[in-house]
Fold this protein.
Amino acid sequence: MPDPTQNAFRALADPTRRDILRLLSAQDMTIAQVSDRFEMTRGAVKKHLTVLSDGGLIHVEARGRERINRLNPAGLTPVLGWLEFFDRFWDDRLADLKSNIEQEIQ
């Protein structure tokens, strides 16, 4: 079974895919509309969109012959969960440092 965190990080690893996510955060787009924003073939854009879809970061909806790509903000949940661990880790370490410094000052 695919790891959602691994797939999301794989999708986010590429700067082009991150740029595509920014575009889709403003509006839903077809492959052609996304392709118009980049200097690459539609086939290359389609591959990026597939990785984003596999990572759960976008939804693709068929409308006739077109495929509408839509940002899926919930797809970032595994990434945020992973990052929250480190947020708590550093909060705890900094609180300990602050406490130690305050004890030294007194």
